[in-house]
Amino acid sequence: MFKVIPSFSISEGKVVRLKKGNFSDQLKYNFNIIDATKLLEDIGIEVIHFLDLDGIKKESPINYHALETIVGHTDLKVDFMGGIRTDGDINKILECGASYFTVSSVAVNNHKLMASWIVSYGREKLSLMANISDKKLVYKAWQKKADIDLIEHIEYFHMRGLKYVKVTDLNRDGVLEGPNFELYKELKEKFPDACIIASGGVRSIDDIRKLKDLDLYGVIVGRALHENIIKVEDLKEFSV
Questions:
Q1: Structural element, H or E, at residue 41
Q2: What's phi and psi for 54, nearest 5 deg?
Q3: Residue 40 belongs to what H/E stretch?
Q4: In degrees, to the nearest 5, what angle opens at C-alpha 222 toward C-alphas 127 and 53?
Q5: Which secondary-structure segment (H or E) carries 129?
Q6: Distance separating the N- and C-terminal Cα atoms of the chain
Q7: For residue range 132-178, what is the model confidence (pLDDT) as tens digits?
Q8: What are the structural domains, with CATH classification, of the chain?
Q9: Burial class of 182 by CB neighbour count within 10 A (0 to 12, 13 to 18, 19+)
Q10: Which of 43, 133, 164, 233 is the most exposed place for a label (fewest CB within 10 A)?
Q11: What angle do CA 136, 138, 143 make, to 5 degrees?
């Protein structure tokens, strides 16, 4: 079943949204995250994407309290991302209630460590997040570009058992200009048995339907949902 995965980016305990991965250009939201996640749970959403922005900047997870709050008040499964660098980081977020975790920078900087995590934690627990800008991989709080081909990057880990691949086109992220459909179509053709998850640019239910038609595994939705451009009840068609 195609998964719609709402995303919550947390900074200093608040929900925010970066535009194009730029920490100096962010939108701030005043809604209560527990109320928001309970509404999502009520209409059948099963998993949320939790992005620890403070952890990304500090290169170590920070927002454990927010994670524990969501897990303690809902039955949602939380996919945690942000600052994961060590086994200790992983163990702590799992102890705090995360069901899954997503890694980005380590996959760029330390291929062997990332590959070992696929084995030690299992391919159902771990996702790769590949962020790109102008077709270049971006990492380290979206500040550095790596001269690594996206397809080769994914293929390296896919051949070592990776199942879940999230790809964000940062030029589309947080600006409501529509997903990079051609990118996701290409990735699905290259990796037909991988679970490809689109991220960045979703602005309407029609965008979500088009991504579903590409036979992707799912899509991450943030700003459009936070600003009620996509209404929570509209997601019911993807949760039945």
A1: helix 33-42
A2: -65, -40
A3: helix 33-42
A4: 65
A5: strand 126-133
A6: 9
A7: 887 778 876 556 667 788 999 999 999 999 999 999 988 876 668 89
A8: 3-238 (3.20.20.70)
A9: exposed
A10: 233
A11: 130
